[in-house]
Amino acid sequence: MSDRTFAATLAKGLDVLACFEERAGVQTMPEVVERSGFDRATVRRLCLTLEASGYLVREGRGFRLAPRVLALAGGYLADLDAGRRVQPVLREAAEALDMEVALATRDRMQAIYVDRAAPASARVTLGLSVGSTLPLLHTAVGRMLLARSAPDIVEAALARPPVRHTETSETDPATLRSAIETARDQGYCIARNAFEPGAAGVAVPVGSLGDRPFVLATTATVNRFDDPKALDEVLNALRHASMVVGRIGQRAEGDTASGRG
Amino acid sequence: MSDRTFAATLAKGLDVLACFEERAGVQTMPEVVERSGFDRATVRRLCLTLEASGYLVREGRGFRLAPRVLALAGGYLADLDAGRRVQPVLREAAEALDMEVALATRDRMQAIYVDRAAPASARVTLGLSVGSTLPLLHTAVGRMLLARSAPDIVEAALARPPVRHTETSETDPATLRSAIETARDQGYCIARNAFEPGAAGVAVPVGSLGDRPFVLATTATVNRFDDPKALDEVLNALRHASMVVGRIGQRAEGDTASGRG
DNA sequence: GCTCGATGTGCGATTAACGCACGTATGGAG
DNA sequence: CTCCATACGTGCGTTAATCGCACATCGAGC
Fold this sequence. Notes:
The structure is a homodimer of 261-residue chains.
Chain A: H1 8-22, E1 27-28, H2 29-36, H3 40-52, E2 56-59, E3 62-65, H4 68-80, H5 82-97, E4 100-107, E5 110-117, E6 133-135, H6 140-147, H7 151-159, H8 173-186, E7 189-192, E8 199-209, E9 212-221, H9 228-245
Antiparallel strand pairs in A: 1-3, 2-3, 4-5, 4-9, 5-6, 7-8, 8-9
Helix pairs in contact in A: 1-3, 2-3, 4-5, 5-9, 6-8
Chain A binds a DNA duplex (30 and 30 nucleotides) through helix 3.
């Protein structure tokens, strides 16, 4: 049946492309066939088209993501004016706290890093970068995002089969729901040992773009926030950064033809 | 005529998506129609499909890139293990030099930032971020990339109509060609006032991934490299970082199922 | 009230996409 | 060396997805 509002081939091609974002590295066509469920001939055609369009590059008998995909991200970040507006703020906060600081939002049922900064004294890195994804239920970032998302999103997140990331990962929906509500009420979220053992995160809200909430978050070893005074310091710094980054959704809408083309 | 190796609809959809990476912000359908040259009904179907797939979000009467595109970039960066392997190195170099340092590669006929770091004392920022693009001919990054690219790429770059970014932008093909050859011969590239007035850049080669060269680059005010000793210092730091980042193409290929899904 | 541009829709013609089936190349095992 | 399993490339008939014109509606601006 033909549909005037949906291009099936495009959607399939994007599905194929998405196969490469989860399992990074080289993927062979049979692997993509397995993962996507499409016919072999279809996968072949889509992969070749993605290659021709520059999104995939051949490597041996498989394909790999091309830097082309960065250009799309660059468009999104340019839209936010990330390089000018958020990077300096994140860097300052990271330096002040001597902790990694990140700006994140929600993509489907995951939290996703939009930008991040780490202090010069980079003791430990979790290997996260722009575009890295985190679970919504078991991180401070994720819970703070859920606290600012529509109820159906929260329900959808809670409805998913619970995953234990650490030994103390909370899996009880009621407890998780209350953690989200607490985050909403107190205006920040803290999570310990929920995703990465020995790690803890703190997140505070920033503005939003459309109906997409943004949060600022920081990560440290689990006992970093034990002292209430230390937690206060972190919260203050994050909130200050949040103010400076400002209302993301409310930048000048008029200046379309900015920058050098 | 049907083609077993090409899905036209997918390619068109990607073209539509690409319309959003150049001119950031909200685009209305008529604008996309104009830019892409496709039929109005086609653009409509493709935009709606891109929205349904999560790559675009509606805003008012137009569309905007969704954070979904960051996930693709995240896949690419995870492939490089950017968060763990290159971020710390860039940060250290940026701190040591007190200058912005970036890892870049080539996407089509542009240089593109893969990752970057800025020192804590972020005096001036050019507003560049992951995915930002720069011209190949008029930047140190670009020329160093060309110096390591296949000859046909160089010719293609030189064949394009020359663009003047600054008053002293070089437009003579012969001079540009020799600048690229110089970069190849001496193993680094320096450019002053070529793209941004008052700015200068230095770039050195890093490994490559497949046939894609990578370079490390740094930017500063134009007189920062006047003193030969200062230039030496910068080159040493960049080369050191280049060594540490190492052969990007030669990381362990076996560890596919790494990380937590 | 009129005009112009944007948007949504109906529908017929076209042809692009699909996927089965066949032949080939590769590469590992015995 | 042979055999087998797997991946790859291709031909082609069928199907229906895509295309793009045409019409209708809506809202803003003059």
